[in-house]
Every structure is written in structure tokens, then in C-alpha cells.
Amino acid sequence: QGTRDHPPARVALRDRLLGTVVSCFKRHGAAAIDTPVLELRETLMGKYGEDTKLVYELQDQGGELLALRYDLTVPFARYLAMNKITNMKRYHIAKVYRRDNPAMTRGRYREFYQCDFDIAGHFDPMIPDAECLKIVYEILSDLQLGDFLIKVNDRRILNGVFAICGVPESKFITMCSTMDKLDKMPWEEVRSEMVGEKGLSLEAADHIGEYVQLHGGLDLIERLLQDPKLSQNKLAKEGLGDMKLLFEYLTLFGITGKISFDLSLARGLDYYTGVIFEAVLLQQQNDHVEEPVGVGSVAGGGRYDGLVGMFDPKGRKVPCVGVSIGIERIFSILERRVEASGEKVRTTETQVLVATPQKHLLAARLKLISELWDAGIKAEMSYKKDPKLLKQLQYCEDTGIPLAAIVGEQELSDGVVKLRDVATREEVRV
Amino acid sequence: QGTRDHPPARVALRDRLLGTVVSCFKRHGAAAIDTPVLELRETLMGKYGEDTKLVYELQDQGGELLALRYDLTVPFARYLAMNKITNMKRYHIAKVYRRDNPAMTRGRYREFYQCDFDIAGHFDPMIPDAECLKIVYEILSDLQLGDFLIKVNDRRILNGVFAICGVPESKFITMCSTMDKLDKMPWEEVRSEMVGEKGLSLEAADHIGEYVQLHGGLDLIERLLQDPKLSQNKLAKEGLGDMKLLFEYLTLFGITGKISFDLSLARGLDYYTGVIFEAVLLQQQNDHVEEPVGVGSVAGGGRYDGLVGMFDPKGRKVPCVGVSIGIERIFSILERRVEASGEKVRTTETQVLVATPQKHLLAARLKLISELWDAGIKAEMSYKKDPKLLKQLQYCEDTGIPLAAIVGEQELSDGVVKLRDVATREEVRV
């Protein structure tokens, strides 16, 4: 339940999609790493807040207690700490596992791909962060998914808002989890969760609500920097200063048109410490294709400066910022589009079918196809001893093979091959 | 234990290796499929004989009882039966899991890649089987691993030998398991296991021993077809007839020089029903590189006509033949060679580093690199605001970046970029 087989058409489309993502990661100079699907159970425990209960655990069959990785970020942090790496730009594309309620139509599975790009190291503020946003922009543009918006916020600004609204510091993280539900439920419901479950006063919640509705660009940053209360909060001021710097860099990248500084963005995970962001596709009126409603965010990420230190015996910190592309959601959109367009995705790359028009010519086919393979040409032939020519040509049409190399008795004695263009039916002797 | 992280240099080498394998599979017209890492526990149980105890099981956390896949063949058979597919040529490259005793120096892990190519369907005898052997030949040649030998046998011939030597049919499969140890221990030990553990008479074991020592080509097949006892056995005769046909096809492919019909080859798995084969690298005296001793087989496979039927409610059979490339063993050989040669494997593909020679030029770098990325050029820059030029150039040398695009104050005011060849130190203004 929540997993699925991927038939050839789906793998072909997925490989095309992953190709675009990998190209972008390589364009930005990232190296690839790989880690085991299995992690020590203790590595994963306590890293995902409430969602730790969704970790798949292996049976105790003797030896170590193991679990399946839940994301690629925690294994990356473990890898950095274990190998004492303080500086790295890496990407990792692999499957992760969550015992979640699957929602297959919206591309939510228990086994799914993550495509992560992260920059680890002590650097000057906001330069790697800006590159992560540029990467999201490039990938969503390259994939031609239609219009999109990248929401940006900073945990420090959020925490500042909480602080000046009277939320005790011990509740900051759980408040972020509640806030994170804002893209699934209206503010009124989030507000009542804050008051009912999290024990906030109505006034505090309403005060938070005023800030949370704000979104904009540099103008909003400037306004909040002048905000009499918020500007007094050290964390918020730091966050707003960095946000301003970030927008400067994004202006140089020419991508601010699709970036929105949005105070309602919180992100669910515990480990974020600075900039956070999330990309959403904008609903569009499209004459031909019905876009699935509520596909949600298609990319997200942020800065997590404390995670690596949790795996280091001496607690040495390695600041990190990274982005994860929601490839499964994007895939389910693309798959629907391909279906709607009636485009036939080829599942093989075969260039030529070696065919025979008469019986007793298997040896000729085997000899010719062997020559073609040895010359690096992608070739197939029927596994029947004496297949009918019509069936062989039909196979070309069904699978999109563009050429048939036909050897009959005449061709054999003339020492030639008849090369047939399957679409035009033109034939040449070569 | 038995798993490992793969740092960038290893992933880069692995991707190169997998690229060669995938090219060959595609050259032969195979489509890719993917299946979940998780299978229902019942799917895997009873498919691997004694080795079923090596299957990793997931903890019962409610819902289905799951296990990690042990190989790619059983999931493929399950996939065919579940989707009622009777005809397919597919490849699948993915990780599998075995709670085995790891022997990391010899490339044996608990998590490792398998690269499988299989042909399913009712066809004329030995045509797909011959293609599988051609594939092994091509891949081992393409990888330039040095001299190799592909041993071929047929379960039907082996069973015929057992029958005429007086082994009861109920012991055929367990006899194959014992025979399979012949590449790890001498005949004397295998013989005493046959007599001691499997309860064979000394005469029967010695009689088997006579056959088991035989290996050769078409001549041996002809001789055995004349063997007064063996030729009387229906199964053996069928197997020998097909072996003759196989050698005819392999002759047309021009690869018999590296094929040996070897009666000692048994293969461990229960599910084989016909042709079986295994490729081994031949020990070579190499002046430069010490080859690891006992790397064992680097590819293997065979025909399994009954497996798909085990997953079909009506038991409908889909004959299959396939090959698995032992990529981890090959990888450990290649890795040792690369280490010995001192070759530096680049882990990124970056073409140009955007650099500045003075302070306060971050904006110029950000603008230029953005242009390069947008033009599809693989580019990096330092994440420091004001990095030293020497450090930037040193980074190019360390990571193999061939070009540096330098923007200084002079270049900025002239509206040019200084393009520096890192190796030759030549510079041009563009």
C-alpha cells in the first residue's frame, strides 16, 4: 500500500524529468553522493518531530537496529559529521520511505524519490541561500510547468513575531508546525488550534494573524525593519537584514518577479534555523489540460545550521542550506499532461529492427544483428525462427522503431541489405 | 554493517560503469522498469531455498508484513504475473538487500546494486538465451576488464547426469546447491558433502565426478550426445540438443572463443530450469596492477520457466531467461585499478569558475554567473564576499575546473571578462 511498480512508460518519463533536475544540479557544480537506504534507528529518532512515528523500522533479526531513511537531509548531516567534512556542495537523488497516509492521485506515496541539493560550509550570509532559490527557479522554468511562485521567509523573523506577540520561546517550534497548516486550512482554523491546542490567548493569536497576512518584496522588508516592535527584536532584525541582502542577490539573478516574502510560510520540520522557502504552482486556466487541484508545494527547503552538530561528538556545527525538489508531485502533473496530449512515450531507443521476409533465414538475421550491435547500433529482432514480415513491421510501428533492415534470399545473394523507413515505407538497398 | 556511504569519487566511477551497462541493455532494445524496495513478505518466502533466512524483514508496525527485496528476478516475475504480461524485454538496475556475512574487500555487501536484463515470452529455443550470453560478452569487453570466460551448462543436462548416476529426483535441487560450491572448494570436499550430508553412495558420487570434470565446446556436446547412458536420458538429450543449437547461434555471434560448456557449473538458486551460465575473470599477470584474488563470478544467469507461474493464480507459465551483472565486484576491481593508476576522477563537471581579483565585486560575480547558468554553462563561484584570487585559482586546480572567468575593476569598466586557461595560464579578454 502506498508503493507502486513503474512500468517502462513511467520510467522513461521519470528519467526525462530527473535528467532535467540533474542537469541543473551539475550546472551549479554539485557532486553526487549516495548513502544506504538503511540507517541506524537512533540516527533518525528525534529528528522529525511528531512525524518520527512515520519512520519504517526493520525487524530486530539480530545485529543493529535499523530503519529506512525518511529523507535525504538527515543522512547528509550524518555523512558530513561522520567524515568530518566542513565544506561540500552535493546532490542526492534517491528514494525515501514514510508510513504516511498515501494519497496517490496527488502524488503522495510511502516510497518516493527526493532530489536534494545542499551547500554545507561557513560562508558569507545569503550567497548559498540565493543560489538555492536560483536553482528552484531554473528547474521549474526548465520543466515548463507553467507559472509558479516561490515563497520565502526566515525562522528568525517568525520567532521574532512570536516573541513580540507574547508566545513563550518553548512554544516556537510547535507554533511553526501549526502555522505550516496555513496552506491546507484557513487562518480561522489555524487560529483556533493556536488558542485551543497550543494555549495561546486570543489577543496573541490575532496579533500573530496581522503579521501572518503580510507578503510582498523589498518594500515589505523595509517596512518591517521600521516596525517599532519587530525592529526591537534581535532575531527578527537579523532575519530581516539578511532577507534584504537575499533580495539584493535575487535582483542580480533577475528572479525577484517570482519571489514573494511571505510571513505565513513556516515549514513543518524542526531543524530549520534561518531562511525557509517553498515553491507552489499557480492555478492556471488552460484550455486543453485540467490541472490537478491542490498539488501543493513542488519544491522547498531552507537553512539548518544545527543538524550536523547533532551528529558530531563535539557538537561542531556545519551550517547548511538546501533545497528538495518534489519530483513525485511534478511527475504526476507531467504524466497527466502526457496522457491528455496523447503523446506516445517511447520506452526503448531501438534504431533498427533486423527482419527477414522468408523462412530459414534466422542465421542471416543473427549475423547481421551481431554486426550492428558490435558497431554500437541499437537493434532488435524477433525471437521467432520464422516470423512473418508483416508482424515484424507491425512491431516497428507499435514500438516506434524507425528503420527495418531486411535480409531476404535476394539480398543475401546480392550481398546487400534492404533498409526500410517504417513511416514512409521508402526502401533503399545498402 | 555491510553497507557504506558512497562519496562523490565513488559515485562518479559507479555512474561511468552503470552507463556502460545501460548502453548495452538499450542497444539490445530493453525497456526499464522499477519496482518498490518493499515487497510483501509472502512474495519472497520460499523463493531462495536456504538463503530465504537472509531476507531483511520490516517490523510489524500495523498493516502489511513487508520485507526488502533480495534480488530483482522475483519482483520481475511478480510484476509480470500481476500485470498479466506474457512478453517483455526489460532491464532493471537497483539495490537489493541480503543479511549475509559481508566481505567488503571482495565487493560483497548487504546493500548492493544488481543490473538485470531479462527476456520473457514464448519463443523458439535458445534465441533469447544466446542474446543473454552476447550481452555478457559485450559488457565484459566494453569494460576492458581483461580476459574472461563464460561457463555454460543446462539444468536438464545436470539432472540427467544425476539421474543416470542413481540420484533420486527429490535430491536434484539440493545436489545443485552442493555442486555450486565447486568454485570455492575442491572436488574431494564436494564429494564428501555429497556422500556425508546428502547420503549418496561413493560410487554414485564418483560417477558424477567423472562427468563434472568435463568442459569443452561443440566437440564435447557431440560426444555426450553419443554417450550410451546420457543419451538415453530424455532430459539430458533435450538439454544437449539445445546446447548444440546455442553453440550454433553463438558461432554466428562470433563469441564461442570465450564460451566453455562446463558440466561443473550448477548455480545455487532453485528456480533455474534450463540453460545456466556464469562469467569469471581469468587471473592475469599484470605488471602494474595486482588483481584481487578470488573475485569470483562477475555475471550470471539462466532460464527460469516456472517462476512467473508461481505468482499467477491459475499457474500460467511465462518462460524467462535473464542475466545479472555483478556490478559491485566489477566496481571493486575498477576502483582498485583507478587507485593504482593514480588517475584523479573528477566529481563535478564544472566548466568555469567565476572569479574576482579585488574586493567589493560580489555583485559583478553574481551577475556574470547568472548569465552563464542561464546559457546552460556549468559554473561555480566562491561563497565568500571577497575571496582571494589565488584561493579561487587553487580551487580550480583542486577540482579540475579548466577555465576561470575573471572580472576585475578594469574588466568591469571595459565591459569585458578575462578568460583564463587554468592549466596553461593563458588569458584572453572576451
From TrEMBL, chains A, B:
Gene3D superfamilies: Anticodon-binding domain (3.40.50.800), Bira Bifunctional Protein, Domain 2 (3.30.930.10)
Amino acids binding L-histidine: 71-73, 98, 114, 118, 267, 271-272
GO cellular component: cytosol; mitochondrion
GO MF entries: ATP binding; histidine-tRNA ligase activity; identical protein binding; RNA binding
Keyword terms of this UniProt record: Aminoacyl-tRNA synthetase, ATP-binding, Ligase, Nucleotide-binding, Protein biosynthesis
Catalytic activity field: tRNA(His) + L-histidine + ATP = L-histidyl-tRNA(His) + AMP + diphosphate + H(+)
Limits of the Aminoacyl-transfer RNA synthetases class-II family profile domain: 1-357
GO BP: histidyl-tRNA aminoacylation; mitochondrial translation
InterPro entries tied to this protein: aa-tRNA-synth_II, aa-tRNA-synth_II/BPL/LPL, Anticodon-bd, Anticodon-bd_dom_sf, His-tRNA-ligase, HisRS-like_core, HisRS/HisZ, HisRS_anticodon
Superkingdom of this protein's organism: Eukaryota
The EC number(s) this enzyme carries: 6.1.1.21
Similarity section: Belongs to the class-II aminoacyl-tRNA synthetase family.
The protein's name: histidine--tRNA ligase
Species for this entry: Rhynochetos jubatus
